[in-house]
Amino acid sequence: MHYTSVGGRQRRRHAHPVLTIRPQQVSVSRKVFIQRDYSSGTHCQFQTKLPVELENLIDRQQFEETVGTLNNLHAEAEKLGSQSYLEGCLACLTAYTIFLCMETHYEKVVKKVSKYIQEQNEKIYAPQGLLLTDHIERGLRVIEITIYEDRGMSSGR
């Protein structure tokens, strides 16, 4: 397990399933970056078009569904509603100490995003030799997809 610090809190990162099963036979071939989509404004949204580098590695519909779900989760996190208003009022009334004992709506959704990425890696991406990196670790700038090469297969075994 690896640990990273996000927003002052320690978060546990899970090792890539392919690497935990066969670490000696797997190497990084290359990385592909999915850029942010600013066509609808500055809210957190990523391009849903399948990059050329991934065309033969993953189904287009599956990729678009994954990125679409991530975009929807970020829209949910950034949505202003009565809960966000109440959190802001409570924060002001308690000099922000309330956040020491409760998570904000945004933090809860960020956890959902991380869990979703982990599930997608386990079910879809890892079996294809791919790894979606949690874009929170990249400052919400890009979605990084690592393409792994199975050295055992490439050496003719």
TrEMBL record:
Main location, first listed in the record: Golgi
Membrane topology: Lipid-anchor
InterPro entries per the UniProt record, alphabetical: Golgin_A_7/ERF4, Ras_palmitoyltransferase
Natural source organism: Panthera tigris altaica
PANTHER family, alphabetized: GOLGI AUTOANTIGEN, GOLGIN SUBFAMILY A, 7, GOLGIN SUBFAMILY A MEMBER 7
GO cellular component: Golgi membrane; Golgi stack; palmitoyltransferase complex
GO BP, sorted A to Z: Golgi to plasma membrane protein transport; protein targeting to membrane
Function summary: May be involved in protein transport from Golgi to cell surface. The ZDHHC9-GOLGA7 complex is a palmitoyltransferase specific for HRAS and NRAS.
Pfam families, per database record: Erf4 (PF10256)
Record domain Golgin subfamily A member 7/ERF4: where: 32-144
Record keyword Membrane present: yes
Protein name (Swiss-Prot/TrEMBL): Golgin subfamily A member 7
Keywords: Golgi apparatus, Lipoprotein, Membrane, Palmitate
Membrane-crossing segments per the record: none
Localization per record: Golgi apparatus membrane
